[in-house]
Amino acid sequence: MRGIRGATQIASNTVEAIYDGVVELCRALNEENGLSQDEIVWAIFTVTHDLDADFPARAAREAGGWSRVPMICSQEIPVPGSLPRVVRVLLHVEGGSGAGVRHVYLGGARALRPDLFTGPAGAPA
Fold first, then answer.
1. Domain ranges in the chain?
2. What's the pTM?
3. Which position among 98, 107, 108, 109 has the lowest Cβ density within 10 Å, counted as fewest Cβ atoms?
4. Going by C-beta distance under 8 Å and a sequence separation of 6 or more, which residues neighbour residue 7?
5. Measured between alpha carbons, how far is residue 30 from residues 4, 6, 36, 73, 85 in Å?
6. The CATH number of domain 2-111, selected from 3.30.930.10, 3.30.1330.40, 3.90.650.10, 1.10.10.1100
7. Taking a C-beta distance cutoff of 8 angstroms, is the pair 23, 64 a contact?
8. What are 33-75's pLDDT values in tens digits?
9. Helix (H, G, I), strand (E, B) or coil at 56
């Protein structure tokens, strides 16, 4: 078993923006780690307090390719000064020791964990 992290900063608190951002994140996680949904044991999504227009799991299920993955959504602690409009995900994935895991941080969310940022491939760190 291994854990894979990902995050993205959403453009605005709308259904469309959340949907688009989460789909992009799910697809990047799949591509960067060579994942199929059958390898994903579960996914936990969190959102910052300023995102409440939709559930990230809906986008992951409908267009992100994770229709059979058990998911849950939760809210992050509203720490003063934290990066706004962020969706984070933690995947629990079958197989491997964690070597070669590519955590994916998109857009402004790259600032959250520059020590873990490895993807997407070819993107500037």
1. 2-111
2. 0.89
3. 98
4. 25, 86, 87, 88, 89, 104, 105, 106, 109, 112, 113
5. 10, 11, 7, 19, 22
6. 3.30.1330.40
7. yes
8. 999 999 999 999 999 999 999 999 999 999 888 999 999 999 9
9. helix
